[in-house]
Every structure is written in structure tokens, then in C-alpha cells.
Amino acid sequence: MTDALSIRGLSKTFGGKVAVDNLSLTVRAGELYALLGPNGAGKTTTLRMVAGLLKPNGGEIQVFGHDVLADPAAAKRVIAWAPDEPMLYDRLTPLEYLEFVAGLWGVPPEIAMPKAEELLRWLGLWDNRGERCEGFSRGMKQKTALAGALIHDPQLLILDEPLTGLDAAVARQVKDLLQARVNGGATVILTTHILEVAERMADRIGIIQHGRLVADGTLDELRARTGEGQATLEDLFLELTGGDEAPAESLPA
Amino acid sequence: MIAPAGSTLWLLRHEMRLTWRRMTERRGRRRGRFASIWITAAFLVGLMLIAGLPLGFALRRVHEIPITPLSSLIGAAIVLIAFTLMLSQTLAAAVDALYERADLDLLFSSPIAPRRVLAVRFLAVSFSVFALFGMIVTPILLPIAVMGHPTWLAAVLVLFCIVLAASGAGLLLAATLFRLIGPRRTRTVGQVLAAVVGAAFFLIAQARNILGGAKTASLFSTIMQMSADPRFQHVPGLSWPLRALLGEPLPLLAAIGVGGGVFLIANQVLGARFAADAAAAAGAGAGGPRARAAGRMRFVASAFAATLSKELRLIARDPALVAQVLLRVLYMLPLGFVILRQAGQAQTLVLPGSAAALSLVASQVAGSLAWITISAEDAPDLLSCAPAPTRTLRQAKVAAAVLPVAVMLAPVLIPLAVLTPWIGLSAILGCTASVAMAAMMNVWWQKPGKRADFRRRRSSSWLVTIAELLLGFVIAAATGLFAAGLIGWALIPAVLALVGVLMLSRSDAQIAQALRAAS
Predict the structure, then answer these.
(1) What is the pTM of this model?
(2) pLDDT tens digits, B114-153
(3) Is there a contact between A106 and A70 (Cβ–Cβ < 8 Å)?
(4) Is the dihedral angle over the CA atoms A223, A229, A233, A236 positive or is it negative?
(5) Rounded to a whole number, what is the distance in angstroms from the first to the last CA of chain A?
(6) Cβ pair B417, B339 in contact under 8 A
(7) Chain B partners of A135 at a C-beta cutoff of 8 Å?
(8) B448 touches chain A (CB under 8 A)
(9) Residues in chain A closer than 8 A to B291 (CB atoms)
(10) Do residues B322 and B192 touch, judged by C-beta distance below 8 A?
(11) Rounded to a whole number, what is the distance in angstroms from the first to the last CA of chain B?
(12) How far, in Å, CA of B487 to CA of A41, rounded?
């Protein structure tokens, strides 16, 4: 079976600073993969290269067998990218936004129309479909952006910090939606700083630091690797990234 | 002297610093900022040499300006024109202050009284509008004052009083609109009203062209007629604006009283309500303005059509942009009437010039719209991660900029082509060329940014703005000559324009590289 994502030897530098350093990882089709790492570890840069938003300095990326660098349009057709800051237009309504995104992906109207209605109803935005996004709360904006990401029924959904700033109810709704997509056969890659979410939802977890993958596998595999059978993901994360070595005396009073 | 924190002076210093940074920000990097300072200085010196010094020499033997009904009316007209032009700016600023809140939440959450915040914000607006007008008036007045009329410098003070009055009036107008039509519509109506007020005097002055020579007279001849009218001989206070401009103490004090009074009353009356209005303006979006009948879907499976539709919607929902385009349309109205009347009377002498002017207007409007549709993009990543080719998206954005121009020009160009086919054809060719030039320049030299930032960052660079304007003039010259039947002569500016456009062209790879470097 073709992997959803295959990255080999990926590198990216900004000026002299190495953001991603010879990174290789594989995400299998139909799994929910959590990419974790400290701030500035290179998670977003990696995912932006996968989404075709950044050109790598080296390496190769394949999405369902499509080479992102050689045939970006084919890869983009099956990907949806949802960053932490929703990609929205304040002066468009959610419905108009979905019309636009569906047009960009060339979704036929007979498919897009019922899909838009289904998504907006499911996300509780149907009653707001004629209102401009400028007055929406962060959660509503995030949900609108998510609806846009799903309108073309992507095989690979990439989300960068999808739960940032969401209240508990909206966060639950987003998590349910992601789980439903995975159950429906789609592949989801997400980054998050909320480790409990990754622990509970992810089939496999990748931990990245200084642009390199330092660990990759199921939670049990990560535990086996560190030799801590009952450790939480937070413990494992801190141990693998060296985050537990922060000096206590530096804490403010 | 350091003003104590929280005082009016301290707050004013903060506002002026922000205003200065916004003004210099338009010019981009440090080098550009210095260039803009040099260009401004050169403009001031140039104005002094070209207008100030000759006027100073000419007026040095004039003992004093006679206070007659005619001179009084001219003085009053000057003050009124300045007031309407300034009101246009201050009204737009007042509407902005309500909606583009920036740091208002921070200021209102501080212990500083909202009245003081409002007073300082509008004082800063007054200073920036005054700077604009003062930059034109002072270099002319200064040599005149030095060469024998020092009291005339009072005109600068009167100018500041007019700005203060215009600020107060702008604030009152915005607040009245807010009360009458609510926060959702105030923004659009306010911006459009500001554009109409700004063009009001021009339109009145051009009434003769709009309505026809037999029906109205020119502004100056109207003033002449009015001054001869015995009723105007004894209008109390009619000569005061002129006397104030010339520096007579009592009228000058009255000007200070009126300007300062209107400003203070507006702030006094509205200060307490301003915070509430601003909060209501912010909350206006919470209900979300309904864009159109909910539930109507217009899905299309084409990236071009979807992008075109999105851009047209965003243009229509951008009050500042609509006001800007409307202003150009208002300025074009007299021109359109002149053209069609002349064409109807087969007076083809004036028409080539009008065809040239149409082409210039077309390039200006297309340039403004193309700059917004191409460079102002709130979700660039969405477009980048879509499978649609960049070229298709760009073409849709250009089409969105060109369509409103075509709609605007069609009512003039089509009848013109029917009445005088050659002139009409020339105008259509000229407009097409100038619109294409403006669109290409904005594609080649695009500078992406958020839509909300674009009112402050009008142009990409001085070079491109000036080049676009110059090329617009050169194409207009070619259009005029072509329309006049001087085809050989028309080739010279046409070739010049072509060379200019080619020199400024960029390949897709160069554009992509520039965008990468900018991001």
C-alpha cells in the first residue's frame, strides 16, 4: 500500500540557519500522525514544504506517490493544509469562502454544494453562512477554515496547531471531526503542543528537534525505546527533547 | 521638557510618533525613507522658487489688498474650498478612528479619559492634514512675507484653524452618521461621503461642463456676478475670512475662536460617547453583516471564475476602495459630459485631448484596483497550496481590476465611438493600452501584504509609482495625437511607452524570486 507521506533527506535553511536537517519520515495511509517538537524545532517548516508552500534545499517529498517537487499540482489536489492562523477573508461569508476554495480545487458544483451544506451544518455554522467572517470568534474562524480544508475531500489533511485558542466545546468538535476523517480512511497529520491530545488521538507520534526526527512510533514503541513502561507522552517528550533539564532556579517567583 | 506620563502632551507625542512612522512606512525601507525626505525637501524648495519667489517679487510693491466685495468673496471661497477639502480627509479619518481601532482598546482600558484620547487622536489627525496643506502654502507665502508682507503669514495660522474646524466637523458628521444609520453602514457611507465632499467644489466649479454652457457660468464669473450684486455689498462678516488671511488681529482671533471652538465642542460633546461608539463599531461585526441572501450558492468548478468572483466581492465590500474609485468617477463626470456634448456637436477639436484624459483616468483607476487585487491577499498560503496554476489566479485578479474600469468607461466610450468613430476608437485603444500597462506594472512589481495594511502602504515604491504615472501620461499623449489624426507623431510616445514598459518588465521567475525575498 502506498504511504500517505514519504519524506527522504529533507533539508531547509533560512539564511545560515538550519530549520530542517536531513529529515526522513513516513506516514501511513489512514493513520493520525502527531508531529511534536519544541518551539522552533522545524515542524511547521516541514509541513509547509509538504503542502508545497516552501521549496526545500534538498530531499524529496512524496504524497500518495505524487512527487511534491516534480508534480506539485497532483500532490496539492489530495492535500489540505490548515495552519494555526485561519486562512480566511474577513469580508467573505463562510459560504462564499467555501465557494472560492471549491473553485480553487475545481470541485464540481453538484458535489461542492451538498458538501458545503453538510460541513457547515456539522460544524454549527449553517445559521451563520450569510454573515461575514470579520465578526466571527476565533473558534468560528477556525471551523470555517476547517470546512474549507475539507470541501475537496482531501486524502491527506495537514493541520498546524488546530486546537490553539479554541474553547473546550469547539476543540472537542474539531477532534471528533479529525477522528471521523481518519475512520473514513483519510490520513491526518497534526502538530500540537497539547500532548494529551496527541497521546489520546494519534496512532503514531513523531518527535522533531533541531530539524531532525529524534523519535518516531506508537506510544508503546516510544515507551519501549526510553525504557519507561508507564511514562506519559509528556515525560517521554521531555526526556527525548532534553526539556526536563531546564534549571529550576530560572523559574520566576 | 518631558511631559508627565498620561498627560495630553505625552499622549500627543505618542500619537505624532505613530503618525510619523506610518507616513514614513509608506516608503518602505530606510533608504526609501531618506529618499522620500529628500524628494519632499526638493518639492518645497522647487515650489518656493517657481511660485513663492515670483509672487513675492510681483507683490512687493503692492501696499495692501483692497477689501472689496470681490476680494472678500474670493477670500471666503478660498476658506470654503480649503474647508471642504480638509473635511473630506478628517471625515475619513473620523470613520477610520471608529473602525480601525488599532490601539484604542489599550487606551480605553487605561485610566486616561476617553475624551482626552479622542482629543489627542484628532489633534494628530489635524496636524497631519495641516502638514499636507501647509507644505503647499508655506513655501509660497514665505518669500511673500519676507519681501514685504509679514502679516500674510497669518494665513498659515488660519489654515490650522480651518483644519481644527474641519476635524471637529468631521467628527460630528461621523458620529451623526453613526446615530442615523448605525455602525454597519457608517463605514461605507462615511467613506463615500468623504469622497463626495472632497470633490464637491470641483463639481460645482465644473457645473458648466456638466449642465452645459447656457445654463451655468464658471465659478469665477459667478463670483464676479455675486460681487456686483448689491446684496453682497453689505453682508456682515463677508470680508472677515480675507482679513484673517491677511493677518488683521480681530478677524484672526475670530478664526482661532471658531476653529478651536468647533474642535473643542466636538470633543466635549462626543468624547464620552466615542468609546461606546467605537465598541459598538467593533461589535457590529459580531452579528456579521449579511452579505447576501443566505443559502444562495454559486459554486463553480473553475479557479479563474472563483477567484474573479472573490476579488469582485472584496472590492465591493471595501469602503475605502469604493470611495477612491467613486472619487475618480466624480472627477471624470465633467470630462465625460464635455466629451459627449462636443461629440454630439461634432466639435472635434476638443475631443483628442479628452480621449487622452480618458486614457489617463483609466490607467489611474486600473492601477489602484490592480494594486489591491494583485498585492493585497489575506490568504496567500491558501492560493499557494491550491492546485490551480499561479498564472490562472493572477489573470483572474487582473480581470477583477479591469472589469470595474470597463464598466466605468463604457458609458462614455460607447457613445463616443458611435458619434465620432475615429476618436472613439482612439480612446478605446488608449484606454486599453493604459489599463494593460497599469495591470502589468502591478503584476511585475507586486508587493504582497494583508488587505487591512494597504491604506497605509499605498504603493510599492517611488520608482514604480512614478513610472506608472509617467507611462500613463505618455500613453495619454499617444492617444491624443492618434485621435487628432497625427499618427506619425503618435508613434513617438507610443514607442516611448513600449520601451518603458519593456524596461520595467519582469519574468515569472523574477517575480517569484522577488516575492521569496520579500517574504
Answers:
(1) 0.75
(2) 778 888 888 888 888 898 888 888 888 888 888 888 888 8
(3) no
(4) negative
(5) 54
(6) no
(7) 284-289
(8) no
(9) 91-93, 96, 130-132
(10) yes
(11) 42
(12) 65
